[in-house]
Each structure stands twice: as C-alpha cells, then as structure tokens.
Amino acid sequence: MIRNYFKIALRNFLRNKAFSAINVLGLAFGMAASLLILLWISDEWSIGRGYANASRIYRVMEREFTDGKVVADDDTPGILADELKRQFPEVLYAAGLSWQEGHLLSLNEKSERFNGCFAGSDWFHIYSVPLLAGTPKTALSAPGSLSISRKVAEHYFGTPAAALGKSIQFDNSKNYQVTAVFENLPASSSDQYDFLLSWDQFIAREPWLKEWTNAGPKTRLMLREESDRSVVDAGLKWFLKGRNTDFGKTFHINLFLQPETEAYLYSNFKDGYLHGGRIDHVRLLAIVAGFLLLIAVINFMNLATARAGRRAREVGVRKVVGAGRPSLIGQFMGEAMLLTCLAMLLAILTIILVLPSFNQLTDKALVLPFEQPYFWVILVGMLLFTGILAGSYPALFLSALNPLKTLKGMLAVPRSNSGAHLFRRGLVVFQFVMSMLLIVGTTIVYQQLEFIRNKNLGYNRENLIILTSDGELPKNYQTFKQELLKTTGIQSVTNMFTNPVGNGNTTEGIKWPGKDPQAAISFNNTAAGYDFAETMKVKLIDGRDFSPEFASDSSNYLINEAAAKRIGYKNPVGQPLTMWDRPGKIVGLLQDFHFNSLHEPIRPLIIRLAPGPYGNILIRTEPGQTTQALASVERLYKKINPNFPFKYSFVDSDYEYVYKSENIVGMLSTIFSGLAIFIACLGLFGLAAFTAEQRIKEIGVRKVLGASVASIVALLSGDFLKLVCAAILIATPVSWFVMNEWLTTYAYKIEIGWWVFALAGVLSLGIALFTISFQSIKAALADPVKSLKSE
C-alpha cells in the first residue's frame, strides 16, 4: 500500500510540475536558511559551555552603587581570588585573570607577537583546557611560570614536549620558563589567549592590585559539587564592606556570581542589572528562522488547499471503493512528507554550497555536524515538524470531502464563504505580516547601524593611526615624535593610555572644594600626552591643551563637559582638582566625546598628563596621504625599534570592531529578510497562477463582453492586494513596538519615522503586485476562443 501511495504521489508531482517545483523550492530555501541560522545559534550557544565542569564555573561581578547610579562589570580587586578560597568553603578553586596584552616572544632568530594574560595558579583546574605537557598544579605556580599554546610551542620548538622546561624571551628583556603547553583554544572558549603568565608576576608588576579599593582584573571560581550557589551569593554581597575603605553613604559595592555558561550571551547590564546582550541577536535570528520556515510551510498549505478541487474526484472514488478517512489522511500526509524529504535534500545541498560564504560573512568556522547525534535530531525534528504542519490541513480538508458531491461535480472552487478559502486568505495575510515585520526590522537595524557608523563622536576618527608603545619606543619617544612631525603627510602625534574607542578605567579618588568627603563619585579617567586635543581633533571649549611650556601640567588636568557638570564648576578652567591625592588645576575643558560604546551615555572624564609614551601612540595623518605617511612611520619605527614587528591599527577600524556583532546580525537580517520575502512571493506567484487558471473561462467571457486587459488585471489582483493591505495594518503597530524595544539598548539611537512603515507598506504592495501581475497579465492577454471553445 505504501508503494502505491508513493507512486500516486510521484504521479501527482509530475502532473503538476510547476506547483511541485514552487513547493519544493519554497520549502528547500526556508529549511536551508533556518538550518544555517540554527548552526550559527548553536555555535553562539556553545561558547563557554565546553568545559568539563562548566555548570560549576562562575565569574565574580561587581555591582557598584555610586552617585545615585548603579553600574555592573567584572572588574575586581587583584587579591580577591585567594581571599575567596580562604573565606568560602564552597569555593574549590579561584583564579584571577588580567586584561589581554600583546608581547614579543623571541627564541634565537625567531620573533613573533602573541596575545596573552596573567592568570592565577588554579586556572587550569577551573578550565579544563587539555595540557599537552606539564600539569595543572605546576603550570602557573612559580613566579617565572609560562604556559603556552600548541601553536606557540610548535612555532619555536617543533613539538609541545620539546618546549617543556625551555626558556622564551619576552619583549627582548626577560626570560620565562615554559612550565606547560596547552591545546590551541577552540572558538567556543570563553577567553582567547596564546600564553599565560603566573599571577605572582602580575601582582609584582602592578602593586596597586594589592589594595581592596582598586579593581581591574577578573576573578573566576569553581564551586564544589555539593555547594549551593545562593549561599555563596549571599556571602559575597557585602564581602567588600570593611575591606574597601572607600565605602560610604553614597558608595558601596555588592559582589555577585554570573554563571560562565551565561557570560557570553548575557553580557549587557543596565542600571547594574542584567539587560540582555548577544542573546538578543540570537533571539532575533531565531525569530527570523521561525518566520522563514513558517512562510515556506504556509506556501505549501496554501497551494495544496487551493488545488483541493483538482483532487476532489480522486477522494470521492477512493471513498466509494472503501477507503476510510485515516487512509486518506495517510496518503496526503505521506505526499507532504515525501515533498518535505525532497526539500530537505535540496536544502542540505544548498547549505554545503553556501556555507563557505556564510562563514566568511559571520567570521565563524561552521560545518554540518553529521557525526553529531543532536544534528540528526534537529534534521528529523524539522522534517517531521515541516511535513506534518504542511500536510495537516490539506490532508484533513481533503479527507473530509463528501464523496457524493465530489462525484456529481458539486465541489466548486471555494468562495468567500468557504472555510478553506478563509483559511487560505488568513495564511496569505500572516505571511505578509511576517514579511513586513522583517522589512521594517531590517530597515531600522540598518538605520541604527548607519547612525552608529556616521555618528559624530566628538573627535575625528578618520586618518588616525594607533601604535602600541613597546620595545625601544618608551625611551626614544620624543625622538620618534619629532622625526614623525618632520615627515610629509603627518599632522600631529600624541600618546594615550587607553584606546580612544574603549576606556573603562574609573576612579572614585577625585576631590574638589565643596565636595562631600563621604561621597564617592565615579569618574572615567585616562592619561594622555602633549597635543592630545589637536591629534584627536577634540574641541576645546575653554582653556588649553597640555603643553611642554608649562611644567605645572604634570599635575594638571583636562576634563570633559560631563565632568564639569558633575563637579559643579560653571567655569572650570583654573579651578582646583585633586586626583589620587595629587592636587592640580583644570587647564582645559573639552567638548563631550564618546570614548565607549553608544550603548552607554557619555560619562564624566578626567585626563591627566602622561608626557612619555604611555600605552598607545596616536598619529594623525593628512587626508589622502595616509598610505605614504604609514610607509614613513614604518621606516622610522624599524629604525628605532628594530627588534619588534611593526603592528598598527586605524581608530576607525577599531571603532567598527566594537559593533562587529551588530553589523553581522544586521547583514544576516537583511539577507534572510530578503529570502523570506522571496519565499512569500513564490507562494503568491503560485496562488496567482492557480487563480488565473481556475478563472480562465470567466476571463474569456469577460473579454468577449468587452472587458479591457487593465480591468481583468485589476480583477485578478484586487483580492490579493486587499490581503496585503490587511497585513500592513496588522504589522505596523507590532513592528513599531518590537523595534522600539530593541532600540532601548542604545543610549544614542535613531527616532523611528513614519516613513519606515510607509516604505515597508509600499514595498510589500509593490512586490505583491509585481508577483501577481505576471500571471494576471498573461491570463488577461490569453485568447478567449481557446478557453470558451469547450462550452
């Protein structure tokens, strides 16, 4: 019987090649796109979850209450990890982790820059990174310990085993002994590094880390298997009280735990509490994937119910000869499943072809994991879901037909009072509601990304080169700067401790006359050299930039408008200010400029003088001469700093990188939204073709009676366009609400204009009209003699 069902299904597909092709293509494209998105979501979801004891690993977070505001981040005191192990029996392991740094590793004639961190001795106990040489206990225990990745070991020593116990020189100055070699970190690792140095070295280099009032590094811990996280959270809340002497009536810090498995996806905090993160992107694309699959399924259901009349006699004959409703349902569900299987095969083939381009777009290394059981579960689940949902209504509708009426030819094509007709119209409306949601969403995401890309940050990020100050540059900085200023194409040079697009340094150690001594008020801070405002192109509202002509500038400050407002100075230039017990004066008032993500408002900023090569060197080039200037910079760099590779970046590229995930999601949304609209139009094309075919005699009569081509096109298109208009009315308020909520994650954002919805509506109508018109015009131009000669 199953064999006969298969034969009947195959005959039906071959008899109706156009409709079968539309169904297969629609389902295949919908499945392929949904599977691609699911692969991307699976990869995002896997980050931070691949460790042996991932469910017991936590990040220690700070919730800082200061100046009437609440801010949360993962900066913690450098001595916190060891103290937590002593004070909490529930903590099995704890380790600090520094910020990432680039260092030159040298051995004999080989030199290469790699990125790494300082980490506590428990690091490899917490994170189950496979060790190819050495043990977790000794990997980071000694002050001179160095753990390197397989990539670094093979680069310098050939094999991991050969690297153990050998020395590598750091920054052409100090030698470190390799005490462990770990496997190259997978993309799913929470942290990415090529080497790790011991925590004792970090504390020795940065003595301020020993103070409870200072924060900067991260703290990670693993709880014992039987421990209750809520107990630790309760103990952590006021852990710093009594240790941090800055606690006062307007300032305190609560510590809390965030699971490692959630840290990547849930990284944004608003007013100190969790407020989404990359999980918002995951949810957005999951919705897009669902929409794509639903639109494809709706196409199938629409076309199958529309062609119900063509199979009514078949159903009638089957019922007369004894076929029961269950067997008919099985027949039609089997056809749907067969069609879905064909679509699935085509979808997998499509994914194989487009996956390299998709990986390049998303900066991932996704593969079809055929060897993983979960992938087959997803495939079978999608197959069953799509096949059953697509075939359910047609099967139930056709199997319920009255055999007497069908054999008498009484089953006319359903009109407006028919349940099937209403159902089909509802599906078309639903399709275009989803399509318009995607059009509006994509447009607003694009607008916001363009707003970010073109936002006036308060400084000019174009033609601004950033170099790391290392090697011989610190002691030769003044020579380097003066030689650069003589070079054609270079406007100005300065130095800055932080990157201009990311300054997370904060301090409460600010004093001024009239300040409440009990109030701890947080300010962002950084250090910069002479010619800072000129090089950054930050507007000086009042006062002057740091200058070598004023020796007192070593204790003076530049502040932004937000800082002046918070301090309360109306005319701040010349006013006293003390930072970290170093009294000085404000010499310049800078216009507010963005030094962090646009997700955050501009915070009060204080800049102290760092006349030496502190952190980064910023070089402003003349517009149109950057290439020539860069070549000159490289020649001078290699002359002064020959043992270090010339590495640089552009500030505008660093700025783009901050919004990399948003840009990727924006591109994916645009691509998949276009695909969703194409699939919806594919189904609409099929419905229009079927309607024109079904009403061919009516069209012939109208033409004989004098109807024009335009009136017939309007007649055939009118019903569909009414449905699209209904979809526009439904989708407009829904899309406004959804996208307005999405924009709340940005402190600086666009205003949603009415024209977005008008554009989406006109676009939806235009696409629908274009799709329908092809079949409508074809039917209107057909010779009426051919359609009426059988009457």
Automatic annotation (TrEMBL):
Using the record's annotation, list all stretches that form the ABC3 transporter permease C-terminal domain: 287-402, 671-780
Pfam entry (one): FtsX
Matching entries from InterPro entries are given as: ABC3_permease_C (IPR003838), MacB_PCD (IPR025857), Macrolide_Exporter_MacB (IPR050250)
- Give the signal sequence positions: none
| Locations listed in the record | Cell membrane
Q: What is its main location?
A: membrane
Q: Can you tell me where the transmembrane regions are? A: 21-41, 284-304, 336-355, 375-401, 422-446, 671-692, 704-732, 752-772
Q: Work out whether the entry's keyword set contains Amino-acid biosynthesis.
A: no
Give the source's domain of life in one word.
Bacteria
What keywords sit in the KW lines?
A: Cell membrane, Membrane, Transmembrane, Transmembrane helix
Q: Where is the MacB-like periplasmic core domain?
A: 20-206, 435-631
Kindly give the membrane topology term recorded for this protein: Multi-pass membrane protein
Annotated PANTHER family? ABC-TYPE MACROLIDE FAMILY EXPORT SYSTEM PERMEASE COMPONENT 2, MEMBRANE COMPONENT OF TRANSPORTER-RELATED
| Name this protein carries in UniProt | Duplicated orphan permease
Organism in which the protein naturally occurs: Dyadobacter linearis
